[in-house]
Amino acid sequence: MEHVPPPAEELARLDRELAELDARRAQLLTRRAWLLAALRPPAPTAAPGWNPSAWGAPPPGRPGAPAQPWGYVPKQPSAPRSAQNVLLTLGGLLLAVAAVAFTLVSWGSMGIGGRSAVLAAVTLGALTAPAVLLRRGLTATAEALAALALVLTLLDVYAVHAVAAPDTDGLGFTAVAAAVLAVLWTAYGLALGKLRLPLPAAVVLAQWPLLFWAWAAGAPAVVVGWALLATAVLDGVIALRGKGPGVRVTACVGGSAMGFSALMVGLALSTTASGPLGAAVPGALLLAAAAAALAGAWRAPKGFARTGGAVAGLAAVAAVGGVPAAALSDGWRTLAYLLCGLALAGVVRAGLPRDAMRGVLAASGAVVAGALMWALPPLAAVLLGPVTLLSDVWAGSPDGFRSALGSTLPWSELAAAPVVLALVAGLLGSAYRWWPSVERIAAPLGAPEETPKPDAASNAAGTPDAASTAPGTPEAAWTAPPGAGAPWYTVGGAGARRRPSGAALRGAAGAGALALGWGALLLAGVVLDLPYAVAVAGETALVGGLLALAVRSAGNGRGASAVPVTALVGAVSGAVSVGLLSLASKGAAYAVFGALAVLFAGAAVRVGAEVPRAVFAVASVVWGTVLTGFAGRSLDLDPHEAAPLVLVVPALTVLLGARLRRNPVALPVELTGALGALVAVGLAVSDAPFLALVLALCGVLAAGAAVRPERRPVAGSLAAALFVLATWVRLAASDVSFPEAYTLPVTVPALVVGVARRRRDPEASSWTAYGPGLAATLLPSLAVAWTDTDWLRPLLLGVAALVITLLGARHRLQALLVLGGVVLALDGLHELAPYVAQVAGALPRWLPPALAGLLLLAVGATYEQRLRDARRLKDALGRMR
C-alpha cells in the first residue's frame, strides 16, 4: 500500500526539495558566470574621450554573450578604493601637519595683515574646494579636504585665542568656540549633503559647550551633572532624528558617555548626601535622567528601548530611594533601595511599550539581585562559620549564636539582611501562591512579536512562503495565550525562541521563596544573637520543617519539582550546619545528631520518590555513624579502640539491605555503610591487633551481605579478602614465625568447601572455590620465606607451589596455576638471589649490559613470535576456570 503523507508533511517536503533545486541552480549560474568571464577577450583600448554610447552606438559584445540594450554603457574597471583611501588619508594628514606647524611655528613671523590673509585664504579654500569636487564626482577627495578644513577651523580658533583674545578664560572661550563650530559645521554638512564627515564632527563638537561652560563658571557638581544630562538629551534627539548612520552612531556614543557621566555624578551626590534634603537635589537630576531615558526608549528600536528602560528604572530607584536612604544608617539603606526596586514592578500597569517595560522590569530585577547579593555573605557566614568548631570539639557551650560562629562580620550593620531576604521571599511566595493572577498581570510581556513578511527574494532562496507558515503547518510559530496551559512558551520551527513554561517559572518562584525564607530565619537568629541552645534547637526545627516540606511536595505532584529539590538541598545543608554548630557542646551534639538521624530516617520512610528517599536514607546513615563516634569519645576510648563501635551502623545497613532486598534504596544505604566501615578501618590503623579485629568484623559483614544472590559476586570476594588480610595482620601483630600452624587449619576446610562447591556447580570459578584457601597459606608463607635464612621453609613452600601449579595445569584451573606459579617463581628468585649477586660480582662490568643488549636483539628479532606466544598463553588462561 502506498503511503500518502499528510498535507502539511508533504508541503514541507516539497519546500525542502525546491530549496535544494534553487541552491543547485545558484551554483550552476555562478559557475556559468565564471566561465563566461574566463572566455571574455580583453577590452580594446579606446581613444581618450571616446564614448560609443554618446553617439548611439551599441557597446562591443563578446561571443556567446546575450545582446545588451541600445545605449548600454558597461562599467569600466576602477582602481581599488582601498589604495585611493590610503592616498587621500596620507595627503590630508600631511596637509594637516603642515597647517599645525605653520600655525605654531611660523605664525609669529608675520604681521597682522598677513596672518589674517593666510587664515582666511586657506580656511576658505579648504571649505570651498569640497563643493567643487562634489560637482565633479570626486567624493573621496572632497571628504579628505573636508577633514583638512575641520583641522584648520580648530587651528583658527586656537590662533584667534592666542592673538586676538589672549586674556580670555580658556574654558569659557573653548565652550563658545565649540558651540560656534558645532553650528557652522552643522550648516556646512546640511549644505553639502553628500559629505559624511561634517555632521558627525558637529555632533562631536556639540558635546563640549555646556560642560566647559559649567566648568569655567565654577559651578557645583550638580550643575555639571545637569550640563552633562542636557548634552545627553541633545544627543538622544540627534540619534532619533539625525541624518545618516554616522550621525546617529556618533550621537549614540556621545549620549551614552554623557548620560553615564551624569548618572554617576547624581548617584555619587545622592549616596554621600548628609540628609534627605541634600539627597533631593541630585534625586531631581536622576529623575530627569530617568524621564529622558524613558522618553528615548518610547521611540527607540528594540534593543535600545530595553536598554533605555533599564537605565530609566535604575535612575528612578537611585533618585527615589536615595532620599530615605540618606536618613538611615548604613545597614538599612539597602532596604530603601530594595523597596523602590520592587515598586518598579508596577510598570506592567503603566501602558509602556513592551520593550521599554521589559527594560524597566530588568532594572527592578537587577536592584533585587543586588540587594540579595549584599545579604548573601552574612548568610554564608552563618552556614559555614561552625566549621571552626572542628578544631575544638566539646569545648563548652558558647554564650550566644554569634560567638559560636567565630565570624568577625559587623552584625550590627547587617541588621537589615534578614528583612531583605524575608521581603523578597514573601513576594516570591505570594507569586507562587497566586500564580494565575501573576500570569494575567504579566500577559502583555508575552504578546507575540511582529515578524516581517518574507519577500520574493527570500522565497526564491528557499525560504517557505506564507502558505508554508500558515496555521497547522510544521513551520508555524505561535505564542500560547495566558492561561492556555503553558504561557510564555514559544513553539515552532528552528527560528522560534523557546521561553520557560509557566509551571517552570512558578516552581522557580516557590523555590526562591523557600530558600530566601530559610536564610532570613537563620540570619534573624544571628542578628538577635539568640542563646546557643535556642539557636541549635531553632536550626534543628528548620531542618525538620524542610524535610516535611520535601516529603509533602515530592508526593503531591503539585507545582514544579524545584520546590521539593530546594527543600531537600536546604535540609541537607542545614543539617550539616547545625551538626557542626552542635559540636561545641556534648549534650547538644548527641541531641542534634540523634534528632537528625531520626528525622531523616522518618523522611526516607514517608517520601514516595526514589531519589529523595535514597538521599534521606544515606544522610540518616551518616548521622548514625557520627553518633557511634561520639559514643567512643564519651567512653574515653582511643581512636583504634572506638573503631569496633563505628561498625555498628554498617552492621545495621547490612541487615537493612537484607530487609529491603532489591529496593533501589538498598544499594546507596549499603554503600554508605561500607564507607563507615572504611572509616573504622582508618581509625584502627594505628594498632595492629585492633586492625585485625576490625578487618575480621568487616569480613563478617561482607559475608553476611554475600548471603544475598545479588550481592554475592562482589561481597563474597570482599569477605574472603578481608578474612585473609585480617589473618595476616593478626599473625604479624603476634610476631608469629611459623604462620603455617595458623593458616593451614583455615586452608584445609576452605579447600574442602571449594571442592564441594565445584562438585555442586562445575561452572563455578576456581578463584571462588580455591583462591581464598590457597592464598591464606601461600602468601603468608611466602612473606616469611623472604626473611627466613634457613632452607627448609623455602624448599617446602617451593615443593607445595610446584604441586599446586601442576595440578592447575592438569585440571585446567586458573587459580591454582596462577597462584602456584607466582609463588614458585618468587620463591625460586629468593633462593637464587644470593648466587646471582655473587656471579654478577665476579663478572666483568661490561658483560651484563652486553647480555642485556643481546637479549633485546633476540626478543626484537622474534617479536611477532613472542607476541603470538603471549596471546596463546592469554587464551589458554582465559579458557581455564
Indicate the topology.
Elements: H1 7-39, H2 81-106, H3 112-135, H4 139-163, H5 170-191, H6 198-205, H7 209-216, H8 221-241, H9 245-271, H10 276-299, H11 302-326, H12 333-343, H13 354-384, H14 401-405, H15 417-433, H16 435-441, H17 456-460, E1 478-479, E2 490-491, H18 502-527, H19 532-556, H20 562-581, H21 586-606, H22 610-634, H23 639-646, H24 648-660, H25 666-684, H26 688-706, H27 712-733, H28 740-760, H29 766-785, H30 792-811, H31 814-842, H32 847-861, H33 863-879
Antiparallel strand pairs: 1-2
Helix pairs in contact: 2-4, 3-4, 4-5, 5-6, 5-7, 6-9, 7-8, 8-9, 8-10, 9-10, 9-11, 10-11, 11-12, 11-13, 12-13, 13-15, 15-18, 18-20, 19-20, 19-21, 20-21, 21-22, 22-23, 22-24, 22-25, 23-25, 23-26, 24-25, 24-26, 25-26, 26-27, 27-29, 28-29, 29-30, 29-31, 30-31
Low-confidence stretches: 44-88, 448-496
Shape: elongated
Based on helices, strands and strand pairing, what is the structural class?
A: mainly alpha
| Separate helix tally | 33
Bin the strand percentage: under 5%
**Annotation, overall tally of beta strands:** 2
User: How is the biggest beta sheet arranged?
Assistant: 2 strands, antiparallel
Rg, please? Answer: 44 Å
Helix content: over 70%
Largest sheet strand order? 1-2
* Average pLDDT rating: 78
Q: What is the terminal-to-terminal distance?
A: 56 Å
